[in-house]
Structure formats: C-alpha cells, structure tokens
Write a structure and sequence with these properties.
The protein is an alpha+beta fold. It has one domain: Glutaredoxin (3-Layer(aba) Sandwich). The protein has four helices and eleven strands. The strands form four sheets. The protein has a five-stranded mixed sheet. The protein has a two-stranded antiparallel ribbon with strand order 1-2. A two-stranded antiparallel ribbon has the order 3-4. The N and C termini lie far apart (35 Å).
Length: 167
C-alpha cells in the first residue's frame, strides 16, 4: 500500500519515498524565478530548514511561511526555504505583499517537473501540489529532522523543527 496524507479527512496518495532522519538529502532543481533555477546541492555546508507547503495562497501555508520568516532572525546561520508547486510569480507576489525578504527566506517552485516532490516524497500527484512537510538538513547534507504532516490542513510542529535547526 502506498503512502498517503489527508486533506480535510480525504485521503490523497503521495509520490516518492518517505525520508527519515539519517537519510542523505536528495538533490533537486527548483525555480527561483521564471528564468533562474537553484540546485539544493548548492546549499551544502549550511543547515537548512526546508518548509514544504501546498500553496502560499492558503491561510495555513501563508502562516507557516510567515512563522519561519519570523523565526529565522534568531538563527542567522540557518538557510530557510519554502517550496511549493506555486508559480514563481505567485510566490514573489505573496512575499512582496507579506514583506518577506526572499534573499533570506528563499521561495522555490517545484512547478516545472515536480522533481523535488518525487525525491522528497511530498508530491500529491492527483492535485499536482505538495503535501505539508518540513525537513531540517545538516551541514553534511544528512536529514536531521523530518515531519510529514498527516493532515494537510494542520500546522507542523514548529518547536521540534526549530530545536532540530538549533541542534
């Protein structure tokens, strides 16, 4: 049987592996803008918090992104990024409206080929969106913390994520 999450109680199939702490973080290429791409491997050597959301245009996703944007001031050596299948222009519009500095809180789009979602096990293929998840990756590219939020409409455990990023 495959992996699933739920959206308001309705089960949805997830594509890709279920990563766990101790696994090597997969590489993926994401869009930073309509023309610029970013390889996750370019952040090797830095602690990363990878916040995965279905869409920034929904209340919980927006709140999750704002929360990590606020928390990153206390963790200046940690790279924070938000990943969704939103188009880069929509992500840019959201960040502009919310006052989010996209050089510090990277917003990266998996819209083109959903390679991140398939590599990290967050792709809801049927809806072509990501599930809600958070990964903390260490300087050595090993995953230190993983949370796949079982119900897409619920928040991740922010305290656990931040503790892992500090550790």
């Amino acid at each position: 049987m495959g992996r699933t999450c739920t959206l308001k109680g309705n089960p949805l199939d997830l594509d890709g592996p279920q990563l766990k702490a101790g696994d090597k973080a997969p590489n993926a290429t994401l869009k930073k803008s309509l023309v610029d791409s970013v390889d996750l491997s370019s952040f090797s050597g830095a602690v990363r918090v990878i916040s995965v959301v279905p869409s920034l245009d929904t209340p919980i996703c927006a709140e999750q992104t704002r929360r990590f944007n606020k928390e990153m001031a206390a963790l200046p050596d940690v790279r924070f990024m938000t990943i969704s299948c939103d188009l880069p222009v929509a992500m840019s519009r959201f960040c502009g409206a919310e006052g989010i500095d996209t050089e510090k809180m990277l917003t990266l789009s998996d819209h083109i080929d959903t390679g991140f979602g398939r590599a990290y096990g967050t792709l809801i293929t049927k809806l072509r969106i990501e599930c809600r998840a958070v990964f903390v990756v260490g300087k050595d590219d090993t995953i230190k913390h993983v949370e796949y939020v079982s119900e897409v409409a619920e928040h991740p455990n922010y305290d656990a994520v931040l503790a892992a990023a500090k550790g």
